Amino acid sequence: MIDEIKEKALKEGVPIIKDEGLAFLLNFIKEHHCKDILELGTAVGYSSMEMAKLDKDIHIDTIEKNKDMYDQAIVNIAENKLDKQITVHFMAIEDFHTDKMYDLIFVDAAKAQYQKYMEMFLPNLKDDGYMIFDNMIFHSLVFQVDTIASKNLRNLVKKIVKFRENVHNDKRFDIMMNDDVGDGILVLTRRKSET
Ligand SMILES: C[S@@+](CC[C@H](N)C(=O)[O-])C[C@H]1O[C@@H](n2cnc3c(N)ncnc32)[C@H](O)[C@@H]1O
After folding, report:
1. Using a 6 Å cutoff on CB, does residue 43 contact ligand 1?
2. In sequence order, which residues have a C-beta less than 8 Å from that of residue 70 and are 6 or more positions away?
3. pLDDT digit string (tens) for 129-157?
4. Cα-to-centroid distance, 148 and ligand 1 (Å)
5. Is the separation of the CB atoms in 183 and 137 below 8 Å?
6. What is the whole-number distance in angstroms between the Cα of residue 73 and the centre of ligand 1?
7. What is the pTM of this model?
8. Dist. CA 195 → ligand 1 center (Å)
9. DSSP assignment letter at 193
10. Domain boundaries in the chain?
């Protein structure tokens, strides 16, 4: 059933997480026993359903601003009987405010806003929680910015490159940059204070 949703999404050009990135994400959740998850960017609910299927105790808040995507996600999640575990919020990420604390925040929307989203949702990350960002190599374009003809695309990719540099130099975090996984997966966690 979820496989059919994946095939349909791919056929219709809906940008869903790549197999390799998903495998990494699911393993990570299992290994680190993440239960409370916030996902930025639902699309049709594919990645949130895959995460929820791992364990009945997992709960996911996921945010989507596109009405068509949201409607499809609601149907898909209900048909797969995962609606008790997944709450889809129909709104812009920028408007989502909560006091809830999460074990994992999975960022998979608006690549140009990654720095902003990181700062915005850091207060919602448990002390030992993780943030994971997809598309950190953006189809390998981050390695060839100067060859990109389209100005808009070049500006977007430059923002991802800048975000990569920023997290590398940010003393608040320990990071794991997995450029060879899917479309590039960044894992970030709070650096434990040195003793
Ligand atoms: C890459 S897709 C998400 C894919 C999904 N995580 C998966 O792998 O199945 C990104 C989604 O984020 C949504 N999006 C982009 N910017 C957003 C924003 N500012 N607020 C809410 N949703 C946004 C888009 O409409 C799109 O459906």
Report:
1. yes
2. 42, 64, 88, 90
3. 999 999 999 999 999 999 999 999 999 99
4. 24
5. yes
6. 11
7. 0.96
8. 40
9. P
10. 2-190
Length of the chain: 195
Question: Over 60: is that where the pLDDT of 27 sits?
Answer: yes
How high is the pLDDT of residue 192? Answer: 85
Could you tell me which of 143, 129, 127 has the C-alpha nearest to residue 32? 129
Distance between CA atoms of residues 145 and 170, nearest Å: 23
Would you state the structure tokens that stand for residue 67, as one six-digit string? 């009405």
Q: Are 136 and 187 in contact (CB under 8 A)?
A: no
CA distance 149 to 119: 31
Kindly give the interhelix angle for 151-169 and 114-121, rounded to the nearest 10 degrees.
Answer: 40
Cα–Cα–Cα angle for 2, 13, 146, rounded to 5 degrees = 130
* C-alpha Rg value of the chain to the nearest Å: 16
Asked whether 24 and 47 are in contact (CB, 8 A), the reply is no
Structural fold of domain 2-190: Rossmann fold (3.40.50)
pLDDT number for residue 194: 56
Average pLDDT over residues 42-58: 98
Residue 107 pLDDT exceeds 60: yes
All residues at 6 or more sequence positions from 195 whose CB lies less than 8 Å from its CB, including other chains: none
Q: Check pocket membership of 110 for ligand 1, CB cut-off 6 A.
A: yes
